[in-house]
Structures are given as C-alpha cells and as structure tokens.
Records
---
Amino acid sequence: MEVSNQIILWSMLVPPWLTLLLMNKEDVKRWMPVALFTIVANTLIVDSGVGLKVWEIHQNTYPLSQMISLNYGVLPVATMWIFKFTYSRFWLYAAVEVALGLVFIFLVQPWLHRRGIWVWINQDAISGFGAFMTTVGHFVSIYVYQMWQESIFAKCERANSFTSLNPAAAKPMQGKDEENK
C-alpha cells in the first residue's frame, strides 16, 4: 500500500512541532527566533525558485499553495534541534548542515519530484552544485543570525541587571517629621 502525498505533506508539517515537547521550555524560547528566521529564508528561496520557474509546487497542505509544508515544519524544527546540540561549535554545526543538505538535495528533493509534490521544471537553471552552494549560504546566514540574536540577548541581560540596583532616586522620600524621630 502506497502512502498518499497528503499524509507525507502533513507528516512534514505537524509531527516535527510535537517533538518540541521533548525540548525544555528555555531551549524552545532560545531557538525559536532562529527557527522563524529559517522559515523566512526558506520561503524566499522556494518562492524565488517558483518565480524563476526552476520548480513548481504541485501538491501541498491546505491552505498553503506555493510553499511546501516542509518549510513550516521539518526545516525550522530541525534547525532548533541542530542548534540545541551544535551551537557555539561552528564546525560541528557546519558538518551536520552539509550532511543534511546533501541528503536533502540528492535524496529528498528527487523523491519529492518523483512523487509529484515539488517538481523540477528547469534543472538546467540550477545544478546540484548550485543548490549545494545555496544551502551553504543559507546555513551560514542562519548561524550568523543566531549569533546576532545572542548578542542582543546579552545586552538585554546586562541592562536588566542594572535596573535591579534600585537607585537612591527611586527610594521614597522621608518627611521632616520622620527625620527628627
């Protein structure tokens, strides 16, 4: 019995988010911005490919039409898990991303094409090497984005530590009667 494309598409969208129940709440908060950035960046890449007539999305989950559900499920959640285990060790992060990028480019995309989900209509427009270089640029930009986010959070934490000092101006004023007691 062959699995329907709709089951495949929904399984790329919903179950990945359920795995975040296994991640502690602080990690989810920490990595959610980079997951959202991943969604935006992937949306730009896929939509550019559709606009340039490199590929077409023939099947998807409702209400999505030109954006494959993979972009809103597997990719952002995988990014969160990858960052949880590799962040601050760039070369480990890069090795994991390169390996997963190659699997995606040479195994997953052709499989989606054969299933009639994500169909390549102009394979001459971008080669496997071009797709790989796009992937490398994408994962490096995601890492740089998270470094930027971390620097913002560090500045906010330093600013918040100063507000807990309670400056003298914030103390209630004593009246003359209280001074004489």
---
Amino acid sequence: MNNKQNRLAELKRLISDKKMSSQDDLLEELSGLGYNLTQATLSRDLKEIRTGKMYDPEKGSIYVLREEITSSETDKIPELSINSIHAVEFSYTLVLIKTGTGFASSTAMFIDRAGRPEFAGTIAGDDTILLIPHEKFTRRKVQDTLNNILPGIREKFSH
C-alpha cells in the first residue's frame, strides 16, 4: 500500500475505534502515527472515505463511516435528528431543511434510507438538506411523510 492508502486505512480505524468529534482531534491522532497533513487534505480524505457525523451523548457529534452505520444506530437517528433540525421550508415543490452544523449528512441519509416513494432523494451540505419530492405528492403529504420519519418535524415548518 502507498502512503495515502495507509493514511486512509488509519483514518478509518480511528473513526471506527474512537469517538472523534473534530478534525483537530483527527489531525492530532494522525500526527502521533507519523502522518503530517493539512486540514484541507484531511477534509478531502474524510470525503473520500465517506464519513458523516452522528449525534453522540458524550461528545455532541462524532465522525462515522457511512458503511458502518448499523440499523440499530439508524433507529436512534430520528429522535436525535429532530433536535438538530432548526427549520423546514418549502420553495415551490422543493423542501429546504436547516440543521445544526455537521448534522445534515446523517439526517439526509436517514431520510433516504426510509425509502419513501414521496421522495426522489436528498442533497446534503454541512447544515442544509435539499429534499426533492416527487411532483405528484402534495405539500401536506410531504409534511406528513417527513413527520412519520422524523416525529416532531411538523413544528419546524415555517408557515
């Protein structure tokens, strides 16, 4: 394996084995293992290995490997994600969901995994989700479906 492959393997191991909540923590751990890299390189590495953030009662939020999220962990997301959702609004047929920093990815992943026919899919940034509903469903149906997936989200809709 080359240096990058070794670094990515170590990064995956750190995220799997420890509750890492910040890039600074990851940089420090990697430095201790002999990998000196910039924050920009670490950001690219985190995207390449497909990480997200998930709520953790001890650390607030931690990095997770999307491939390792089990069904028991995704079962916890609705209760926790609703606390990180700040606002939901419609723009024509699209739905914009504002979350706390770092929570958009895991919340969008949960919405996608629900596999509801009302939704074509999501696009997530750091703190914003664009939910794309299928056109044949009304706003009311989209709201009801979101509330079934994430109980309590109805109160977050702007009127």
---
Amino acid sequence: MLGPPGAGKGTQSERFARERAIPKISTGDILREAVQAGNALGRSAKSVMDAGRLVSDDLVIGIVRDRLERRDAAHGFVLDGFPRSLVQLDALDRLVDAQAPLVVVDIEVPEDVLIERLRGRRICANCGWNAAPGVTACAKCGGPLVQRSDDNIGVVRERLKIYQRDTAPILEHYRRRPTFRCVDGNQTQDAVAADIAAAVASVVGGTLA
C-alpha cells in the first residue's frame, strides 16, 4: 500500500488485513512502538523521525525481513509504508521473489487535503493508535490523544517534500508492472476500501480480495 503521508495507508492497510485475517506490517508502527519502549531501535530512530526524515534503508529492510519470516505472513500480508526508496524496492523484490503476486496499490490524495489531514491527526499517547477525526479517546486502551511530533505544519511540509524526492520515483517503476493499481483516496473511508478491494481482486481474484 503506497501513498504520501496522510493518504490513509495505515487505516486502509489495517482494515484490508483485518477483514482477510492476514497481518498488516507497518514499519512506521514498529518504529513508533520501539520509540515508546525506549529500546535501542527506538533511541536511534527517534531524532530522525521527529525531524520528519526517513530512517536508513538498512534498518527498515532488516525490520521487514524479520517480520516477513514469521509464520503468520506465510499466506499473505499487507505492507504499509514500505518500500519508500528504490533501494527498499529492490530489497522487497528479493524478499518476496518466491511469492506471487506482489500487488501494488497507490492511494492518491491532493496535497492541500493531505496537509489538512495531517494537521488534524491525533494518536494515542499510550499505545500509538491512530484516531479518526472527532474521536476524543483511544478506542484500544482509552488513553489520551495527542498530535504526533512529526505532524506539525513545518514537519508535514518536509515529509511531503521528502516523499516527492525519495519515494514518488518508485511509482514510476511500479507503474510498468501489470500488478500496479491506483485508487482515489479523496473519498469516504468505505469508498476507498471498496476501490482497494476491487483493485486487488482485479489482480489476484478472490484469493485475498
């Protein structure tokens, strides 16, 4: 699942995975959990994430490799936030070479909409759960909601600039593949979810869709 920050990748990835009983693998979630835990991975990633920059390719590739080796990913998975560079793209091709097909769904949203979404986004201070607009407490643990440190306006613009520079080029690579699909993310969540399901079904039939 690809798309710029604020496109809804996390929400849609989680929904798609939950409805099909397959794991959602989010490098961002794994890193944020490490930051919350204060472990070595979290300490090394925190300053980079707070500045809106991306952590190193080697670190992210290692996280994904370890996660894909778990038993629950053997029959399918959803990747949220990976790959974000051509180096990560090449690594992913090697990681899933024996599995097929790799369906790539890009969620498109206008930049002005992205900025407004990100400025209003809130997460749980305790567990990192992403809250929908208007929600006042975490649905998972009841914890307080706060703005993510990388969602202030300055960092938001920096993240979008980095996305265009480093991540958007992988779309040009994936567009040449017959398993690439693009959906309109500037709709209701239900409409986006339906379009994603249809996009995946057009590649794999009823296997995951």
